[in-house]
Design a protein that fits this description.
single chain, mainly alpha, Serine Threonine Protein Phosphatase 5, Tetratricopeptide repeat, 25 helices
Length: 445
């Protein structure tokens, strides 16, 4: 076989392979639907789990028995649970059932709540026998759950109506009640708050509880805030705790932030603390998030606080944390937060100087995800860093940034056969006129 024939086979054989299979290092969740896997966690969702080293588990199916949960597993559980909650609010019982069934099968921290809502959705669909069976499973698995009272109340309601068809609620009645609840914010708070608290159970219309919470937050009086704080502490209506925490951050002002700080200090529940950190972020309480990032003993909570600082654009504060942090996993989250905050200069410094090879390569990869503007930095790293694995990571980063020009420059000058082949293979799957011209140039030699 001639040299030209071998080169053609390499180029067009590689071109026939799906692009996702060509990328090493994987990509996870990026910003606003960006690339997905090697970036552990950004904002929005990424593209695929087809990249090697990509997302560990997709939507659907539980975590294999006994396996340790990753950040992706926890995010997946929360995403499914939130989707199910939204479908409950919209009265889409079949879709809610599907989501909560998936959460329940994961056997995670939200499994008890998911089983309750699974039974609730089955009841709304008229599947009374299935609902009672789910409640029985709930009572057996979670005898000490904070959702036990709700499950028992649902069981009583179903048994009282035994033999009768269970129909969805009358939508027009529900909508009228929603309108009436909205109007309560114009009443004297002494009269409105007790009425609103009556509707926090939701009753026959789950939307009522969410709307009652919203109106309580809008009223903003001390007694209204006290009602929300009780729920945020988990003293009542556990199904509304997350929303209460969100509302304190969104509408509570400085008093709401102070109440969230008190709850944060008093609880040992890691999930609850994470929710409060996110609420701090929404409220713009940078000092509270920074205090957690610096002072939390739990690496998991430090990482969550650092993620929120990244969303807030607090890159200088994050950079200072990196200088003193000793946990490599937390430092990895700092690099991700620097990416989210757009701090390409700090990522470049780490890509050049970080001693830990895994962290150094993560910085290189994230530079690639920031677009072509980082091309000169990446080319400089390639020319000065003699580590073959670092150089391969630079090639991946240039590919991710769609920088065919710099990849061609490397392919022209590179004398190492493996690195040259890696550069050409990236170019062969890029939708670039400049890359195609270079490949034809190689074929015509």
């Amino acid at each position: 076989m001639t040299r030209k024939t071998m080169l053609a086979a390499l180029i067009f054989g590689l071109a026939a392979v799906p692009a996702a299979a060509q990328v090493s290092g994987g990509v996870g969740r990026g910003i606003g639907g960006g690339v997905a896997g090697g970036v552990d966690r950004g904002i929005g969702s990424g593209v695929s789990a087809s990249f090697s080293g990509g997302v560990s588990s997709g939507i659907g199916g539980g975590i294999s028995g006994g396996a340790a949960w990753s950040d992706d597993d926890q995010d997946r559980e929360s995403e499914l649970y939130d989707d199910g909650s939204n479908y409950i609010d919209e009265g889409k019982w079949d879709k809610a059932l599907e989501k909560f069934d998936q959460v329940a099968k994961m056997n995670g921290k939200k499994a008890d709540a998911a089983l309750y809502y699974k039974a609730y959705a089955q009841n709304k669909l008229g599947r009374k026998a299935d609902s009672l069976a789910t409640i029985s499973e709930f009572k057996q698995k979670f005898p000490k759950s904070k959702w036990l009272d709700e499950a028992k109340a649902l069981e009583i309601e179903e048994r009282q109506s035994s033999g009768q068809q269970v129909n969805p609620d009358n939508e027009s009645d529900c909508e009228l009640k929603l309108i009436a609840i909205h109007g309560l914010q114009n009443m004297n708070s002494n009269d409105a708050v007790p009425l609103l608290e009556k509707f926090l159970e939701g009753g026959s219309c789950p939307k009522l509880a969410s709307q009652a919470m919203f109106v309580l937050a809008q009223i903003g009086s001390p007694d209204a805030r006290a009602a929300i704080v009780r729920i945020a502490k988990g003293e009542s209506h556990p199904q509304l705790q997350q929303k209460a925490i969100q509302d304190l951050g969104l509408f509570g002002g400085s008093d709401g932030i102070a109440e969230l700080s008190n709850i944060y200090a008093a609880t040992s529940d890691v999930d609850l603390k994470k929710q409060i950190l996110r609420s701090f972020m929404v409220a713009g309480a940078r000092d509270r998030v920074l205090a957690a990032a610096k002072g939390e003993k739990s690496p998991e909570l430090r990482a969550e606080a650092i993620r929120q600082l990244g969303v807030m654009g607090a890159t200088q504060e994050i950079w200072q944390i990196y200088q003193t942090e000793t946990d490599p996993e937390v430092k990895s989250h700092v690099i991700q937060a620097l990416f989210v905050g757009g701090a390409s200069d700090k990522l470049s410094e780490l890509a050049h100087n970080e001693k830990d090879p895994d962290l150094r390569r993560k910085a290189i990869r994230n530079l690639g995800l920031m677009g072509r503007k980082t091309g000169p930095d990446l080319l400089s790293i390639y020319n000065t860093d003699k580590d073959p694995d670092d150089r391969k990571e630079v090639l991946n980063a240039l590919f991710l940034s769609d920088d065919a020009h710099d990849l061609i420059e490397i392919a022209r000058k590179e004398t190492d056969p493996d690195l040259k082949k890696a550069a050409v293979s990236k170019l062969s799957i890029m939708n670039s006129k400049e890359a195609t011209q270079f490949l034809m140039e190689l074929l015509n030699k």
